[in-house]
Amino acid sequence: MENITIKDIVKAAEGQLLCGDENKVIKEFSIDSRSGNEDSIFVPIIGERVDAHKFIDGALKINGATFTSEHDKPLTGFEDKPWIKVADTVEAMQKVGTFYRNRMNLPVVAVTGSVGKTTTREMISTALASQKRVFQTIGNQNSQIGVPLTLSHLTAEDEIAVLEIGMSERGQIEKLTNMIRPNIAVVTMIGVSHIAQLKTQENICLEKMDIVKGLPEDGIVFLNGDDKFLAPYRGKLSHRTFFYGLNKECDYRAEEVRVRDGQTLFHFYYKDGEAEKNMEVVLGTMGEHNVRNALVALGVAHQMGLDMEVAAKALSTFHGQRQQMHTLKSCTLIDDTYNASPDSMKASISVLSSMEGVKGRRIAALADMLELGEKERDYHYEVGKFIAGTQVDEVAAYGELSEEILKGIEDNNARIIVKHFETRGELQEYLLTYVHPDDVLLLKASNGMKLKEIAEAFLQNE
């Protein structure tokens, strides 16, 4: 944060200064009592298991100030540092984040959706950064705690911010969009992530669409026109709305999509005034889902008045952080182990299946997709049925739910070899022994299944 004092924070957080210098400058939040500096304010969060208020004494040995919701006076020995009494420490941080964002006069692009938020945010940032100074969400800080942490790092030099917002229960998107006040809102797709909490995809859609509640009257909405839950919003929103996708009715659309030498090529069509324009776009990453990500990135660039040729060229070097491809001595490895849902699982399988020039086998090493609610077994079977229609040669899996993936394959395609393992260690040993240099190996599962450890084992063996 820039030019923010304790006095500003007290006012924004609707708190009470118990002691300390109100003119002290604060530059950032700290939510870890073991980190921070003299210019940061500690935010003791009350979690399900731990109340961080008990770490305030340690935190103030490092940090310059603290919030508290449990003290009426400072601890002995720390009276020289500002203590701000608030009703709720997380809400206080959010209020300060909102206050700081309101001080920053720059356009904000907000991205949400069940799948693809991070890659879409990164791709939009890449297109915009070709001509502007862009600030984007740090890591995966897209939550009720992460968003104000991200906002605190905005600077006066930033020209555009691209921020990712997520949710785990009803009402969270509205709170976050009101915090960041976006000028452009993007919804990537409606899947089944968090369906255990929200019960239906219709409810998930309603929650995601709450993103428009933070837009000004002249705000812009981008929706995935290929998504069956989002396409029906055509003509129903008060804000200017643009659809992107492969559908002919989309405002920003792709045709003639093809893969060549690890890149994805397509013709990009859009309207510039009354004239329809098109250009050839080359992506440095594979997958039809990434084509849609590129379409909205180019759409946002167009609506912000940027040079489209320059923005498109920037995407040719984009590779993303979540799906990484390694050419190893042992095989070609696609590491997509950060997380998984039915839609992202299918997208990754499609990438594996569509790869050209594979001399060996296309092997998918999979594990459970977590937090899918009552229909979790059905979703896993559905993924298996999808794999059965692809060019994948073998699926090796571990985890109780992944057995449903294998069943979906066996019921629909006897050609694909399937193997199930009781532990991740057994799966790892099999893959390290069995995979050959000409093979392509995909690793995909929810983060909690820790397939990343198998990816690291392959990299360490090089």
TrEMBL record:
* Keywords attached to this entry: ATP-binding, Cell cycle, Cell division, Cell shape, Cell wall biogenesis/degradation, Cytoplasm, Ligase, Nucleotide-binding, Peptidoglycan synthesis
Superkingdom of this protein's organism: Bacteria
Q: Which residues form the Mur ligase C-terminal domain?
A: 323-446
Named in its record, the pathway it takes part in is:
Cell wall biogenesis; peptidoglycan biosynthesis
Major subcellular location class: cytoplasm
Q: Any idea where this protein resides?
A: Cytoplasm
Q: Which GO terms describe its molecular function?
A: ATP binding; UDP-N-acetylmuramoyl-tripeptide-D-alanyl-D-alanine ligase activity; UDP-N-acetylmuramoylalanyl-D-glutamyl-2,6-diaminopimelate-D-alanyl-D-alanine ligase activity
Cite the InterPro entries for this sequence: Mur-like_cat_sf (IPR036565), Mur_ligase_C (IPR004101), Mur_ligase_C_dom_sf (IPR036615), Mur_ligase_cen (IPR013221), MurCDEF_CellWall_CoF430Synth (IPR051046), MurE/MurF_N (IPR035911), UDP-N-AcMur_synth (IPR005863)
Give the transmembrane ranges.
none
SUPFAM superfamilies in the record, alphabetically?
MurD-like peptide ligases, catalytic domain (SSF53623), MurD-like peptide ligases, peptide-binding domain (SSF53244), MurE/MurF N-terminal domain (SSF63418)
A GO CC term? cytoplasm
Q: Kindly list the positions annotated as binding ATP.
A: 113-119
GO BP terms: namely: cell division; cell wall organization; peptidoglycan biosynthetic process; regulation of cell shape
* The protein's Enzyme Commission number: 6.3.2.10
Q: What class of enzyme is it?
A: ligase
| Pfam families membership | Mur_ligase_C, Mur_ligase_M
What reactions does this protein catalyze? D-alanyl-D-alanine + UDP-N-acetyl-alpha-D-muramoyl-L-alanyl-gamma-D-glutamyl-meso-2,6-diaminopimelate + ATP = UDP-N-acetyl-alpha-D-muramoyl-L-alanyl-gamma-D-glutamyl-meso-2,6-diaminopimeloyl-D-alanyl-D-alanine + ADP + phosphate + H(+)
Q: Where is the Mur ligase central domain?
A: 111-301
Q: Which family does it belong to?
A: Belongs to the MurCDEF family. MurF subfamily.
**Function recorded in the entry:** Involved in cell wall formation. Catalyzes the final step in the synthesis of UDP-N-acetylmuramoyl-pentapeptide, the precursor of murein.
Annotated protein name in UniProt = UDP-N-acetylmuramoyl-tripeptide--D-alanyl-D-alanine ligase
Q: Which organism is it from?
A: Anaerobutyricum hallii
Gene of this entry: murF
